[in-house]
C-alpha cells in the first residue's frame, strides 16, 4: 500500500505540474461530461451531479430534495438496498453521495478492470436511472431523518448553524435547512419523491465527471450509459436560483443554552461562484481568518487573549452568493469580550487592509499548498464536478496559482469594502446572553 501511495503521489503531482488535461464534451441528451485520463493506477472515479439541492425544495416541503437524494440507493432496478450494497462490496466498489443547497450527486470508485468496472457501473446506472422510491422504505428513511433532526435540536452547533442560515438568507431558497424540517419531512410521500426525481434528475441537467484508467471512448460510453435512461428534459424544472438580497440591517440572535461555552457565528451573504472579486476575497480571507495560525483573527482572539481555541472565517461561493462566516466557541463569561475582539479585528482589517508581508506570506502558503489540494484522484474528481456544475473555465486549476499571485493589497481592500458590511452583519450566539450588538 505504501508503494502504491508513493506512485500515485508522484503521478498525480507530475500531472498537476504539467496542467490537468481536462476533456469536455456534451452528449446528445444534453449531459455535460468532464474527463481526465490517467493510467497511473487501475482505478476509476465517477460522479454524476444534478441541480437538485435543498434550494429547489418547495416552501411547504422542506427536506424533499435531501430525502429524494437519500433514497436513490435504497432500492433500484429491482434490487433492494442490501443487494445494491452487497453487489458493490463483491467487486470492491464504493458508492457515496454529496448534497448541498445547489446540487445533489452520486460518486462511485471502482477498479478499472473490465469485469469489476462493468458490474459497479451497472449498479450505479440502476441507482441513477431506476430508483424505486418504495413507500415502506420511504417511511423508514423518514423516521431516520426525523430522529436525526430531533437529535440536532439538542446540539448547540446545529442550533447556531440553523439560526445563522435563516437570518442570513431570510426568505431566499438558501435559507432552507438541507435535511428539512420535522413537520415537513413527516408529510412527504413516495409520490412526492418520484415527482421531484422526474423534474430534477434529467439528463440535460446532469454533469458527469470521470477520472482514471479508461480511454476517451470508454468515458463517452460510460457517460451515455449513466444518463441514457434519465428523465427527459421536457419534464425538467427550472434550474434558476434567484439572487441573494443584501441584508438591510444587522441582526442579533441569542439562543439560551445550558453549556459552558457559547457558539458564535457572525456573517452575511458573500459571493457567488465566478465572481470577479473571488481571488482578492480568497487571499484576503486567508489573512483575516482562513489561514489558521497565520490569520489575524487567530492572533487576536487566541494568541493574544486566549478567548477561543479556534476561530475562523470563510467565503462559501455558490450558484448565487453563499455565506461569509466567522465562527468560534468561547467560555460563556467571555462571550461579550470575544465578540468585541472579533468585530474590532474585522473593522481594522476593512479600514487598513493588509500589509505586504501578510500578502506575501499568504500567497506563498496558498500557492505552495495548492498541489496538495489535487493530490488524489478523488480530489481531482471533485474539482472536475465543480468546474462542470458551475461552468468554470477548463483551465481553472491551471490558472488558480497565477490568479492568486496577481492579487494586490489594494484589490483586497476594495473587494472587502464592496462585499463586507459590518453594520449589516448577522450575529448568532447560542449559550450566554449578551448585552446587545
Explain what you see.
The protein contains 16 helices and 11 strands. It is of the alpha+beta class and 437 residues long. The termini are far apart. The longest helix has 18 residues, at 135-152. Helix 2 (64-71) crosses helix 8 (190-200), helix 10 crosses helix 16 (409-419) and helix 13 packs antiparallel against helix 15 (396-406). Mean pLDDT is 92; it is low at 1-18. The protein has 2 domains: 18-235, Cytochrome Bc1 Complex, Chain A, domain 1; 251-431, 2-Layer Sandwich (Cytochrome Bc1 Complex, Chain A, domain 1), CATH 3.30.830.10. The protein is globular. 45% of the residues lie in helices and 17% in strands. Strand 1 and strand 2 form a beta hairpin. The chain has helices at 2-18, 64-71, 81-90, 114-129, 135-152, 156-169, 182-185, 190-200, 216-227, 278-290, 296-303, 335-352, 356-369, 377-389, 396-406, 409-419, and strands at residues 23-26, 32-37, 43-50, 94-99, 104-111, 207-212, 251-256, 261-269, 311-315, 323-331, 426-431.
Strand line-up in the sheet with most strands: 1-2-6-3-5-4
Number of strands: 11
- What structural class do helix, strand and pairing data support? alpha+beta
Oligomeric composition of the shown chains: single chain
Strand content: 15-25%
- Kindly provide the radius of gyration, computed on alpha-carbon positions and rounded to a whole number of angstroms: 23 Å
CATH class of the largest domain: Alpha Beta
Average pLDDT number:
92
Count of spatially separate domains = 2
Helix content: 40-55%
At the fourth level of CATH, the homologous superfamily of the largest domain is Metalloenzyme, LuxS/M16 peptidase-like
Shape: globular
Amino acid at each position: 500500500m505504501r508503494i502504491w501511495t508513493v506512485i500515485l503521489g508522484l503521478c498525480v503531482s507530475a500531472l498537476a505540474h504539467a496542467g490537468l488535461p481536462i476533456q469536455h464534451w456534451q452528449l446528445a441528451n444534453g449531459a455535460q461530461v468532464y474527463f481526465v485520463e490517467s493510467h497511473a493506477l487501475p482505478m476509476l472515479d465517477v460522479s454524476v451531479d444534478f441541480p437538485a439541492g435543498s434550494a429547489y425544495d418547495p416552501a411547504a416541503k422542506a427536506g424533499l430534495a435531501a430525502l429524494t437524494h437519500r433514497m436513490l440507493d435504497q432500492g433500484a432496478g429491482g434490487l433492494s438496498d442490501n443487494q445494491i450494497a452487497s453487489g458493490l462490496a463483491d467487486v470492491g466498489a464504493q458508492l457515496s453521495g454529496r448534497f448541498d443547497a445547489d446540487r445533489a450527486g452520486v460518486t462511485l470508485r471502482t477498479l478499472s478492470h473490465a469485469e469489476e468496472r462493468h458490474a459497479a457501473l451497472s449498479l450505479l446506472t440502476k441507482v441513477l436511472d431506476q430508483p424505486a422510491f418504495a413507500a415502506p422504505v420511504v417511511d423508514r428513511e423518514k423516521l431516520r431523518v426525523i430522529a436525526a433532526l430531533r437529535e440536532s435540536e439538542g446540539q448547540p452547533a446545529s442550533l447556531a448553524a440553523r439560526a445563522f442560515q435563516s437570518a442570513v438568507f431570510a426568505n431566499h431558497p438558501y435559507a432552507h435547512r438541507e435535511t428539512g424540517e420535522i413537520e415537513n419531512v413527516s408529510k412527504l410521500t413516495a409520490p412526492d419523491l418520484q415527482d421531484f426525481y422526474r423534474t430534477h434528475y434529467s439528463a440535460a441537467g446532469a454533469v458527469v465527471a470521470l477520472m482514471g484508467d479508461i480511454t476517451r471512448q470508454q468515458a463517452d460510453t460510460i457517460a451515455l450509459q449513466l444518463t441514457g435512461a434519465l428523465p427527459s428534459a421536457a419534464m425538467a424544472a427550472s434550474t434558476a436560483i434567484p439572487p441573494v438580497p443584501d441584508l438591510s440591517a444587522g441582526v442579533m440572535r441569542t439562543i439560551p443554552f445550558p453549556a459552558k461555552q457559547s457558539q458564535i457565528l457572525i456573517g452575511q451573504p458573500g459571493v457567488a461562484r465566478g465572481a470577479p472579486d473571488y481571488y482578492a476575497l480568497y487571499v484576503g480571507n486567508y489573512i483575516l481568518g482562513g489561514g489558521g495560525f497565520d490569520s489575524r483573527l487567530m492572533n487576536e482572539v487566541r494568541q493574544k487573549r486566549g478567548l477561543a481555541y479556534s476561530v475562523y472565517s470563510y467565503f462559501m461561493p455558490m450558484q448565487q452568493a453563499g455565506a461569509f462566516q466567522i465562527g468560534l466557541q468561547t467560555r460563556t463569561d467571555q462571550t461579550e469580550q470575544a465578540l468585541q475582539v472579533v468585530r474590532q479585528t474585522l473593522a481594522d482589517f476593512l479600514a487598513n487592509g493588509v500589509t505586504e508581508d501578510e500578502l506575501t506570506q499568504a500567497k506563498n502558503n496558498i500557492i505552495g499548498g495548492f498541489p496538495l489540494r489535487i493530490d488524489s484522484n478523488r480530489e481531482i474528481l471533485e474539482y472536475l464536478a465543480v468546474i462542470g456544475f458551475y461552468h468554470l473555465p477548463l483551465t481553472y486549476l491551471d490558472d488558480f496559482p497565477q490568479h492568486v499571485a496577481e492579487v494586490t493589497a489594494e484589490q483586497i481592500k476594495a473587494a472587502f469594502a464592496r462585499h463586507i458590511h459590518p453594520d449589516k452583519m448577522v450575529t448568532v450566539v447560542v449559550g450566554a446572553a449578551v448585552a446587545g450588538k
